[in-house]
Structure formats: structure tokens, C-alpha cells
Specification:
Two copies of one chain form a homodimer.
Chain A lengths: L7 E10 L9 E17 L3 E8 L11 H13 L5 E7 L10 H16 L6 H16 L7 H6 L2 E7 L2 E5 L6 E8 L5 H6 L4 E3 H20 L2 H7 L6 H4 L6 H10 L4 E4 L6 E6 L1 H15 L6 E7 L6 E3 L2
Parallel strand pairs in A: 3-4
Antiparallel strand pairs in A: 1-2, 1-12, 2-4, 2-5, 5-6, 7-10, 7-11, 9-10
Chain lengths: 314, 314
């Protein structure tokens, strides 16, 4: 058996929230406690092979799988055609949940693959490869979820051409509560209802809030974070797709949340809180609101994780 | 002579740049070396009196003068009708220059007045009073210039209702070079040519840049500040009112500027630089470009001042 056959890694790749309120299309964050687990092994057989997928019905064929496609992009740029990687995936994030299911798989694949290649690539390159998974998943190679999945914490995508992603400071005691109502909202539908033009005065209010949110993160000013968590552009339109959205927002804030909004393109809704107790009180409030609705749902409570994909024990 | 008659203060009130690139209508900054000087004295004669104005032809009648109106708003809220303040103003900032001439006078008046009242009011209240000066000057009580004039450094106006102004972190070695072409651009004209609607994709790019600029300020990442100094919404429209604007931008960056844009509603143009040497090289480049144009101009070079209005020796 060759030396390379022995090299293996197991990684945890976090769930993520994209479109953090005012930060539509630019600000995302990573969860600490929820994510996919993946094992990757260097192999003498060239190319990418997915040996098993647990927890979701997704294609094993690498070229049809977001994790496979992302890892193929990495290997192609690595430029040694003799290298092969085998991968097994344990999905803990339900596809379509709005907390970056495809991004977690794509990010875990490329970050894990990079560990097997002695961290040959920079985080920026990994984001670029993982975006190829997003291209397969939704038609657009966006970085909203793969950036926080790879870098951890809060991230800002300043620009795509060239790709310019900034890892922001993440306050230690910031938690997120996410409710995933198990109804289907297609990303394409959620995008289709947006208007291509917006009022300048609304746009100004939005970028004032984005600046304030970033300032609040750096200064760990939870009050400022709370005031800045406002989306006057997208939320008023998309929230109609989500059952009880306004009730959720108002009552979760009464229960102690700093604020929140739609996670990604929905249907999940996230709320940020200072501290675990508040985050759990928000979860209880979400249950109170959703239990009588007759809609299945799942609730996640997690600190904002400051590390992205990380190696865990096999 | 009563005790109060003796109490006097002299203040320096800085010039300011509003609409810092992507931060249109929300981000401003204060200069350290350029500003108005004002002397204020408590008086037994109730009300506000302006005893002299040097350097500009402006009304002495308090109710017609931005500094007077701002100070009257402060005294009214103070609620002791027997109090009077006399004020003399030395204008070093040319009205209409686009670097906050009216704001400097209004800010200096209320901050100086507050010193005479043992700092009774918070900085937020002072901003609110100074905005009354702006209402007189241009019809709208905006905070774009009075906020940095009072707080110093970089400021962000997150919201007007309620007023929410944040002082951002200012990197130590950040300098600004401003050229004031002595042509008239009326604020009302500059505002009139803006479109009320903008493309969502442009707005997203703008708020990505705002977030990045704020992050760059907190992390003192001059490269990031440079990349974020982009305005895809207002500058493409307003820059047509300013002679040689695109030449200025390109060649000042070649000369070492991080980037820049239109100061306020123009006609001044500002460029940020790391360090005094770069800021002076940028000034020389501005001269090179403007000298052949046959337009009078004035150039200011200053560190970004971290203090706003401050007491100086009488």
C-alpha cells in the first residue's frame, strides 16, 4: 500500500446563514454546533469518488454532486492528474433548509481536500472552488454561504470581480437561533419576486445599516447590532413566503432576540441573541408560534462559530 | 460684573467631508488642520448675538445665520431664558466649498455653547441642534457634516428617525487631500440630478463596499479601505459637474492615493492616503491637473482628525 493511501481526514463543515438582514447578498455567518461531517481519503485511483452519503438522497456521481464538483475544481487547479480523493458524506443539514446545505458539503469537500494536500491552497481559493458547487446547486456560483462555511464567523463578500471576501470580527457571546419551517421555497422563486430597482432612499438606509452592523460586530456593541438588523429592501417582499414571519420577528425580539431576518432565500428564519439563555428563550418562542400552525419545523440553536470547516477525530 | 460674564471659550471647528465614496448620505470624516475658529462668551443679555464674522460675507442676525440658529436651538432646549451667548466667528472654510462650511459654524457654535454650560448636553443632542443650522443652510436638517464636525474622525449616520450616529474607528495614519475648484455647484442641483430609483445590483455592490470600508477602518487595513472606496450609485452621475474628475481620480491613485470621490455634493473632490507624504504627492498631482484648466482652486491637506470641535487658547 502506498504512503498516500493512508492519508485521511474527517471534517466538520458548518451550517451557515446568508443574507444577514441588511447584508443581503454580502453578509453571512457560520454556526458552531450544526453541520455536515465528511471523511476524505487520498487514493491511488485518480479523480473524485463519493463512496457514501448518509442522511439525504443526493447523487453519488461526483460530477452531479456539489461536494464532488467543488473537489474536482480543486484537483483540476492542483494539476496532478494522478491524484484521487474518496469522500463519504454525513448530511446533518437538510437540503433546502436555507442554512447552507449545499455550501456545507462543498466547503467541507474542498477544505478537507486541501488538508490532504498540505494546505496548498489559500482560503480564498477554497471559496472559489466551493462556489463551483453552488453553481451546480442553484445555477449561480455565489459565495454567500461557502464564505462563512470556510472562514467561520461573520463574512462579507465585497465583490465578485475580483472575488474579495473579508472575515469580520465575531463577538464571543453572539448566538443564533434558526427555525426551519419544512415548506419548500425555491431559491429561483425567492429571487424572482425581487424587484430589479429599488428606491435610493431605501438603499441608503440599507447601507447605513450595513455599516452599523459591521461597526457593531467590531466593537461588540450588541445594542448597535440590534438596531442595525433591519432589511428594508428584501425582507418586505420575501417575508410573505414565510408563515407567521412578522409574529416571529416581533415576539422573538420580545423574548430577548437582538433581531434577525430571513436566512438565505428562506424559508428558514434566524434570530441573533446575546448569550445562550436568550438564544434558547428565542427557540422556545419559535416553538410557541409554530406548534399551533400545523407546519413541520426544526429549530437550531448555536453560538456563531468562529472557525469554519475544521478537522475532527475519525 | 456677574460670574457668568467672565466665562468665555474659543473653539476650533473642523472642515468635514460628507458622502465618503460608497457611504453616500451616511459616512463623513473630519479634517484636523482646516476649520473655523469661534469665540463664545456667556452674557447677561438673553439670547444669541453674533458680534463679528471674519472671512466671509454672512448675516450677523442670529436667526439668519447657521451658527446662530443652531445655538438658539440649544439654548431653547436648555430652558433658561435669562441666559445669553455672544459669538464671534472667523471663517476659514469658504461657503460652498463642499467641505462643510455651514456645518463647521453650526457645530462650533453648539459645542462651544455646551462648554459654557458645563457640557450639559450629550454629543447626540449637539448634533441635533447643529442640524438646525443645516436646515437653514440647505433646507434639510442633515447630519452628514455636523456629525463628523462634532464627534471627529469617521462617523456613520445609521438613521434619522430616531437619530442614530456612530463614531467609527479612525486609523492613525489616514490623511485626506481635498481640492476645491472654485466653481459653483448648488446642493439642490447636485441632488436634483440623482435618480430616485437605483438598480438592486448596484445597491448591493454599494453596501458591500460600505461594510468593507467600515471593516477596513476598524482593522486599519489600508488596502481594504482602498478597494472599498468605490461609489457606483452617485459618483457616475454627479461627477459630470466637476471638471477633470476622472483624470483626478485615476492620476491621484497613481500618485499614491488610496481612493476618493466627491466631497459632499461637490464641487470639491477628496482623496484619502496613507501618510502625509502620499497626501502631499496627491496634492501636487491635483495641482498638475488643475493648473492648466484655468479654474481657480484651493487644496487642503490634513490628517483625519480624531477630535471634533475642540477648545483652543484664546
Amino acid at each position: 500500500m502506498s504512503q498516500t493511501n493512508k492519508r485521511s481526514v474527517k471534517v466538520f463543515s458548518p451550517a451557515t446563514v446568508a443574507n444577514v438582514a441588511c447584508g443581503f447578498d454580502v453578509i453571512g455567518l457560520a454556526l458552531e454546533g450544526t453541520g455536515d461531517e465528511m471523511e476524505l481519503h487520498l487514493s491511488d485511483k485518480p479523480g473524485v469518488r463519493i463512496t457514501s452519503i448518509e442522511g439525504a438522497d443526493l447523487p453519488l456521481e461526483a460530477s452531479q454532486n456539489v461536494a464532488g464538483v467543488a473537489l474536482m475544481a480543486l484537483l483540476q487547479e492542483y494539476g496532478k492528474p494522478e491524484i484521487g480523493i474518496e469522500m463519504s458524506i454525513k448530511k446533518n443539514i437538510h437540503p433546502g433548509s436555507g442554512i447552507g446545505s449545499s455550501a456545507a458539503s462543498a466547503a467541507g469537500a474542498v477544505a478537507g481536500g486541501n488538508m490532504l494536500l498540505d494546505n496548498y491552497f489559500s482560503p480564498d481559493a477554497l471559496i472559489r472552488f466551493a462556489m463551483e458547487g453552488e453553481r451546480l446547486a442553484c445555477g449561480t456560483p455565489h459565495a454567500d454561504n461557502v464564505a462563512p462555511a470556510i472562514l467561520g464567523g461573520f463574512t462579507l463578500v465585497r465583490s465578485y470581480q475580483p472575488l474579495d471576501v473579508i472575515k469580520l470580527h465575531t463577538p464571543q457571546d453572539l448566538w443564533v437561533t434558526v427555525i426551519h419551517p419544512q415548506i419548500e421555497v425555491k431559491t429561483s422563486d425567492a429571487r424572482g419576486i425581487l424587484k430589479q430597482q429599488v428606491l435610493l432612499k431605501d438603499a441608503i438606509r440599507q447601507w447605513g445599516n450595513v455599516g452599523a452592523l459591521v461597526a457593531g460586530l467590531y466593537t461588540e456593541d450588541y445594542g448597535l447590532i440590534s438596531r442595525a438588523l433591519e432589511d428594508v429592501i428584501v425582507e418586505p417582499i420575501r417575508s410573505i413566503l414565510i408563515p407567521a414571519f412578522h409574529d416571529l420577528k416581533i415576539r422573538c425580539k420580545e423574548a430577548g432576540a437582538l433581531g434577525g431576518g430571513i436566512s438565505g432565500s428562506g424559508p428558514s428564519v434566524f434570530m441573533l441573541s446575546k448569550g445562550e439563555d436568550n438564544a434558547r428563550a428565542v427557540a422556545a418562542m419559535m416553538e410557541n408560534i409554530y406548534a399551533p400552525l400545523g407546519v413541520d419545523y426544526k429549530i437550531y440553536v448555536s453560538r456563531i462559530g468562529n472557525s469554519g470547516v475544521k478537522a475532527i477525530n475519525i
